[in-house]
Structures are given as structure tokens and as C-alpha cells.
């Protein structure tokens, strides 16, 4: 991160009063320039990517898209230094301590804020970009939820929106991306099929070949083919073909779901 006499800051918190509190605290530091204040995750992602701030004050608990999702969604060559703001997430506090990234526990006093800012300023002036990125990567791994993902963040036509995984018909590998097929539409998301598969509920999503995962609730028919393979006909009209490597898992999953309904 380039040393500069001015430290550009983005403040992200869904509570206007909380954003104002951070802004007033920052006013005591003449080197700070607040370049944006954001009230939700998608707005924050856009501002951070456009403005490339030196420092980010980021609320952890926000409705719709929390602070961790903001960081996972960013497409940056380098990350800003991050000071997290949290109310009571003890799990997150442990993760922050492990990753050596600072946090402010609400409500915080003037002295605690000053210490957090001075530490962030020192990182901006002295820490390497690689070191900061490694710390953030460690934090995101430690804070990853054990629950299966229920929605995904999608970028389309310059906008960011949420897509419920229940709306996905099937998912296709596309180099370093995956294509999420929903009816006649397809949305590209930066991820690998294997990484995404680990986040999906295995009772609802099954890989039918090395390059495709299917939502079993979207399956209309299975047509037997040669050597035990199947053609999978989806309710959308899409036709996919299983491979022998994955057909047993599909059969087991379908049998299990049929058993639940009887």
C-alpha cells in the first residue's frame, strides 16, 4: 500500500448513527479523508472497488450481506487495511485475534478508537500488501460459517444482487468461474465448482459430471442411456447428461428423497 500524507477511508455500517460516530472520531485526525459512507453490503462493494481506500471501517453484522460477505465479494488486486466493528460476535472476536486484524467492540470509547486507528495507520505505512491480504484470507477462513449457503452474490450489468440457491436449476464450470443457470438466464460468478459444491447442501445439490451440479428439486425426468448413464431433463427444459463417475450419488440422493415423501 502506498504511503501517503492522506489516508482515504470508507465507513460501512447499516446504522446511520454508528456511521456518524465513526466519522466524528475520524475528524480528530487531519490526515484522514472520508471518501464514502455506505449503509449496506452491495453499496460498500461498489464504493471500495471504485475508490480503492487505504482504510475500511466495516460493520460485521449487517442485514442481507454481512461484513465477511463484502470482503469475499470484492474483486481487488489489493485490499485496504480493515478495522471491523462488531457488537457481540464472540466467534468473530476470536477470528480477529488469530488474524491480527483490529476490531472495535460496540460501544467503544475515544481511547479504544484512537488505538485502533493508530494501529491501522501503522499497517498502512509499514505493512506489505501481501501481509494484509494474508491476514484477511486467514480471517475469512476462520469466520466461514458451517451452515450451507442459502444465497449467492451475483454481479450483472454493473449491479450486485442476491440469488437464492433454491432458484438455481443447475451450475456449470466455466474456467475460473461458475455459471448459475436459472431458467433462461445464466449468471457468471467467480468461483470453482469444487469450492462451491462444498458450500451447497448435499441433500439438495448433486454433481452429475465433473463440470455440472444439479438442484434435484429442479429435475423433471431421468432418461436411461447406454451403460447406466442418464439424461437429466430439468423443469426448465434443459437436458444434461450424467457420467458414470457420479451416477451412483445421484441415484442415492433421488432414492432418499423419494423415501422421505412416502
Describe this structure in words.
- With about 260 residues, the protein is of the alpha/beta class.
- The protein folds into two domains: about 5-145, Rossmann fold (3-Layer(aba) Sandwich); about 150-260, LytTr DNA-binding domain (OB fold (Dihydrolipoamide Acetyltransferase, E2P)), CATH 2.40.50.1020.
- The chain has helices at about 15-25, 40-50, 65-75, 90-100, 110-125, 130-145, 195-200, 245-260; strands at about 5-10, 30-40, 55-60, 80-85, 105, 150-155, 160-165, 170-175, 175-180, 185-190, 205-210, 210-215, 220-225, 230-235, 240.
- The protein has a five-stranded parallel beta sheet with strand order 2-1-3-4-5, sandwiched between helices.
- Strand 6 and strand 7 form a beta hairpin.
- Helix 2 packs across helix 3 (about 65-75) and helix 4 (about 90-100) packs antiparallel against helix 6.
- The longest helix has 18 residues, at about 245-260.
- It is elongated, with a radius of gyration of 22 Å.
- About 30% of the residues are buried.
- The mean pLDDT is about 85.
**Gap between N and C termini, in Å?**
61 Å
What's the architecture of the largest domain, going by CATH?
3-Layer(aba) Sandwich
Q: Number of domains in the coordinates?
A: 2
Q: Name the beta content range.
A: 25-35%
Helix/strand-derived category reads alpha/beta
Helix and strand sequence: EHEHEHEHEHHEEEEEHEEEEEH
Give the CATH level 1 class of the largest domain. Answer: Alpha Beta
Strand order of the largest sheet: 2-1-3-4-5
**Envelope shape:** elongated
Q: How many beta-strand elements?
A: 15
Q: How much is the radius of gyration in Å?
A: 22 Å
In CATH terms, the superfamily of the largest domain is Response regulator
Proportion of residues in helical segments: 25-40%
List unreliable stretches of 5+ residues: none
Largest sheet: 5 strands, parallel
Mean pLDDT: 83
Provide the CATH topology of the largest domain: Rossmann fold
Number of helices: 8
Amino acid at each position: 500500500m502506498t504511503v501517503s500524507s492522506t489516508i482515504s477511508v470508507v465507513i460501512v455500517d447499516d446504522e446511520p448513527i454508528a456511521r456518524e460516530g465513526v466519522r466524528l472520531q475520524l475528524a480528530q485526525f487531519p490526515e484522514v479523508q472520508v471518501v464514502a459512507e455506505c449503509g449496506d453490503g452491495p453499496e460498500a462493494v461498489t464504493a471500495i472497488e471504485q475508490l480503492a481506500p487505504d482504510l475500511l471501517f466495516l460493520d460485521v453484522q449487517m442485514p442481507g450481506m454481512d461484513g465477511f460477505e463484502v470482503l469475499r465479494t470484492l474483486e481487488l488486486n489489493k485490499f485496504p487495511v480493515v478495522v471491523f466493528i462488531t457488537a457481540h460476535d464472540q466467534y468473530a472476536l476470536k477470528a480477529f485475534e488469530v488474524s491480527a486484524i483490529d476490531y472495535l467492540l460496540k460501544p467503544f470509547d475515544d481511547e479504544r478508537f484512537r488505538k485502533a486507528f493508530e494501529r491501522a495507520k501503522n499497517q498502512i505505512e509499514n505493512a506489505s500488501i501481501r501481509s494484509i491480504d494474508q491476514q484477511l484470507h486467514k480471517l475469512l477462513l476462520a469466520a466461514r460459517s458451517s451452515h450451507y449457503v442459502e444465497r449467492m452474490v451475483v454481479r450483472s450489468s454493473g449491479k450486485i444482487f442476491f440469488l437464492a440457491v433454491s432458484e438455481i436449476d443447475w451450475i456449470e464450470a466455466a474456467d475460473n468461474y461458475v455459471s448459475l443457470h436459472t431458467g433462461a438466464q445464466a449468471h457468471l460468478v467467480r468461483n470453482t465448482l469444487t469450492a462451491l459444491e462444498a458450500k451447497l447442501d448435499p441433500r439438495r445439490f448433486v454433481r452429475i459430471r465433473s463440470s455440472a451440479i444439479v438442484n434435484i428439486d429442479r429435475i423433471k425426468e431421468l432418461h436411461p442411456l447406454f451403460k447406466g448413464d442418464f439424461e437429466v431433463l430439468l423443469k426448465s427444459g434443459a437436458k444434461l447428461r450424467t457420467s458414470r463417475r457420479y451416477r451412483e450419488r445421484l441415484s442415492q440422493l433421488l432414492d432418499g428423497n423419494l423415501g422421505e415423501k412416502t
